[in-house]
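In the design runs reported in the main text, the only information available to the sequence generator was the tokenized backbone. The following block is the verbatim input for one such run; it is reproduced so that readers can re-run the procedure and compare outputs position by position.
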């Protein structure tokens, strides 16, 4: 939204008047700037007239105005043009907004007494934050004491049904507040993934701040999915209420991703793992059984 207030050129004289209008914010999500917008319901703005005499600092006067949807114009009368031999310079300051959070707006005053003053209140674009937690577990479901050495994960953040960005996270990225750039983002248009939580028992939390909100009333919904990790089962996804989800398309903000070790693989110490031992054991058992059968047949002959 943009609040527009224009003062006519005779503002410097003994009377000043103006009007106000709400407009849509600057271009966002394909919208053009300056489209007309109705005055928000139950919202008012407070205006204060300031004066500057000679080289003195500008100070507020007793002249104030409150603008509403029913009273979108104002007039200041009886304004002196001079104080002694010094010409008085007038300016306008918006002192507050009632009915809306002023932190949601930026305020700029443009113009001068000759051409008129313009007060522009621009609504800050709405954004969303998104976070997820990563946890590693052994084959029995017990959390591992730290991030597995040499392991990395690749996650895709989706915006509704469209991929927003892909990030790779490794054990070297786990310092608190570390920022991880999106893969292939050479222009810096994608938000960086920030490490916001580190703990063996609580997991590793990653966050994206200031994501695009979208045009729908509730904005975009963001999801996270993880590519398979060698030596670990497919990721298990849990919602922020602790219940397991059927898939990544159900994991929204503050979800948890678990990776459980595959039972037959030993820790990465250079060995072949237990699968080969199991295989050889089966072969030897079969050979021993075959030998016993041959011996029994020989005795019967």
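Verbatim output:
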């Amino acid at each position: 939204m943009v609040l527009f207030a224009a003062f006519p050129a005779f503002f410097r004289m003994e009377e000043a008047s103006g009007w106000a209008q709400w407009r849509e914010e600057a271009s966002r999500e394909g919208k053009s700037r300056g489209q007309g917008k109705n005055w928000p319901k139950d919202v008012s703005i407070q205006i204060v007239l300031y004066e500057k005499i000679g080289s003195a600092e500008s100070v507020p006067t007793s002249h104030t105005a409150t603008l509403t949807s029913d009273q979108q114009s104002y007039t200041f009368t009886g304004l002196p043009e001079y104080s002694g031999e010094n010409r008085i310079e007038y300016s306008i300051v918006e002192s507050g907004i009632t009915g809306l959070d002023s932190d949601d707006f930026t305020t700029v005053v443009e113009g001068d007494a000759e051409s008129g003053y313009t007060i522009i209140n621009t609504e800050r674009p709405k954004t969303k934050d998104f976070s997820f937690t990563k946890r590693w577990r052994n084959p029995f479901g017990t959390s591992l004491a730290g991030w597995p050495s040499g392991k990395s994960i690749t996650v895709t953040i989706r915006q509704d049904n469209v991929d927003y960005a892909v990030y790779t996270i490794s054990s070297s990225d786990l310092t608190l507040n570390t920022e991880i750039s999106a893969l292939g983002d050479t222009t810096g248009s994608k938000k960086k993934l920030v490490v916001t939580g580190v703990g063996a028992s609580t997991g590793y939390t990653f966050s994206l701040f200031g994501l695009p909100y979208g045009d729908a009333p509730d904005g975009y919904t963001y999801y996270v999915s993880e590519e398979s990790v060698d030596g670990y089962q497919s990721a298990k996804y849990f919602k922020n209420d602790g219940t397991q989800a059927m898939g990544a398309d159900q994991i929204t903000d503050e979800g948890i991703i678990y990776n459980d070790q595959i039972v037959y693989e030993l820790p990465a110490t250079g060995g072949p793992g237990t699968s080969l031992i199991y295989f050889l054991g089966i072969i030897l058992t079969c050979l021993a059984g075959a030998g016993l059968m041959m011996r029994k047949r020989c005795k019967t002959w």
